[in-house]
Amino acid sequence: MEHKPDTIKVSASHKEEIFATHADLHVVVKGSSLISGNEAMKKAREVNQLLEALSQVQVKEEAVTLQGVNVSTSSGAVLKSSTASYRLKIRCDDLSKFAEILDVIASQKNAALTRTEWTYDDDATREALLLTTLEKAKSKAAKVAQVMGVKLLGVYDLIENVYDEEAAMPFQPQMKAAFRSAPVEEPSLGMDVQHTKIIHVNVDIWYRVSEF
């Protein structure tokens, strides 16, 4: 262990729960024909049906992007009539509409949600938490120095640790019900419609002090 003479060590920590700012829903749509490129968004019937249904809950067309197309064929030859799976990403900036978007996806017999990515305002939160933690450490060091009868002369060393605590949300098999031939009137989605995580900040600070 490194020896730090004429120092006192102070540790402080702070944590805060933050809410997701937006979500990206990744969806696979099974199509009866192969259409590549941006044309798929308008000419692939099953994709267009999903877009029209999403527009009913005020999801704008530009919020949906095509991530890729997988082709299925039994003959080995890729034809325009080959079936295809279209991978879409739906950006949900207004999380109050998240449950409505899930309902729309579940109501489409050819669509299924594969995963959801949650995004947070991490940088601003971590900066604010670090400042709060440093203030805690400074106040604690001043009290320790006063009790021990020494003066704080400056900082000798500082170690900062930041980590996230986010509950894992595994894919729920209930969502596969969207592939059934009949639409589900009241789908049981089995997943949270809002998402949070806890950010922890911890600092260890060695203060240089006057002689005891």
Question: What would you note in describing this structure?
Answer:
This protein has helices at residues 40-43, 45-55, 98-107, 122-148, and strands at 7-19, 22-31, 64-72, 83-92, 111-119, 152-165, 196-209. The strands form 2 sheets. Strands 3-4-2-5 form a 4-stranded antiparallel beta sheet, with helices on one face. The chain has a 3-stranded antiparallel beta sheet with strand order 1-7-6, with helices on one face. The protein is α+β, with helices and mostly antiparallel strands. The chain folds into 2 domains: 1-21 and 120-168 and 188-212, Protein of unknown function (DUF541), domain 1 (Translation Initiation Factor IF3), CATH 3.30.110; 22-119, Alpha-Beta Plaits (2-Layer Sandwich).
Notable characteristics:
212 residues; three-stranded antiparallel beta sheet; four-stranded antiparallel beta sheet; alpha+beta; 2 domains; Alpha-Beta Plaits
- Tell me the overall shape: rod-shaped
Name given to the CATH architecture of the largest domain = 2-Layer Sandwich
CATH fold name of the largest domain: Alpha-Beta Plaits
Mean pLDDT: 82
Specify the number of helices: 4
Number of strands: 7
Q: How would you concisely characterize the structure shown here?
A:
This protein is of the alpha+beta class.
Q: Helices and strands in order, then pairings?
A:
Elements (H helix, E strand, L loop, with lengths): L6 E13 L2 E10 L8 H4 L1 H11 L8 E9 L10 E10 L5 H10 L3 E9 L2 H27 L3 E14 L30 E14 L3
Antiparallel strand pairs: 1-7, 2-4, 2-5, 3-4, 6-7
